[in-house]
Amino acid sequence: MSQADLDAFEGRGADSDLRLPPRGRDQPQRTISRWTASRGSLFRNELLTTFRRWRTLALLAVLAAVPILVGIAVKIETSDGSTAGPNGGAGGGPAFISQITNNGLFLVFTALAATLPFFLPMAIGVIAGDAIAGEANAGTLRYLLVAPAGRTRLLLTKYATVMTFCLVATLVVAISALTVGAILFPLGELTTISGTQISFTDGLGRAFLIALVVAASLIGIAALGLFVSTLTNSGIAAMATTVGLLITVQILDQIPQLHAIQPYFFSHYWLSFADLMRDPVYWDDLTKNLGLQALYAAVFGSAAWARFTTKDITA
Known about the structure:
Layout: H1 3-10, H2 31-35, H3 42-52, H4 54-77, H5 86-89, H6 106-115, H7 119-138, H8 141-146, H9 151-184, E1 190-191, E2 197-198, H10 200-216, H11 219-229, H12 235-252, H13 284-310
Antiparallel strand pairs: 1-2
């Protein structure tokens, strides 16, 4: 960007009414709104940019479709009065699936258990992996840094946007499951894993808390994806690497010979949210999970900051 362009952008010079430099043929349309972003609106603009992408909407649509498919499958399977799940619900299958026919609220727990191992973290990996590398690949990263947003602030904004997507994606799954469960199955008092009865209101509150825990369980993969995104200028490479690491960790977490190191994998305690359906609640694995996610966020967030603040931005 020339000095004249910079002067025009900052409102200096003879053409002070022109706030934007000329847009080249390869410059994406959305860069215009980025140039006009003020300090207070950077996060808002990042959210709008992320959630307006067709890719983001497609990911959310897939996540919303999972509870619908599970609910319909359970409804069809139990239409003859049998119990959902393999062998009449005797073990196997996602958690709580055998209870869906008794209470549609269990579809929320089942859908989160079904999407958390792969679908949810894959979506987060795509968004996080593209956060920095996608900007570099599109040629918009330099223009974001020209605007009044330093590298640290931009990186924090990107991570906050990814975390917002974590929450939105989890709530999309939960709300879709709750809607389908209410339509296809009865609602009422719930039987916890411990065998005690709780009211529907209490169960709904626990479902919301479980959704928050699931969203918090994704901050580790979000930080990892953001770090990978700072290592390359290819958005596709960053997304593929993040998803590849996710699959690799999931496989390693299933190998018995690696039991000594498995508690340190970011995915090891993901399904501990089921302990919120016990009475009383078991907090041990839940606190280990949240602590582990905080550790991953601190380590890979720091690594992403160290890399991004010293990176030579050429695109």
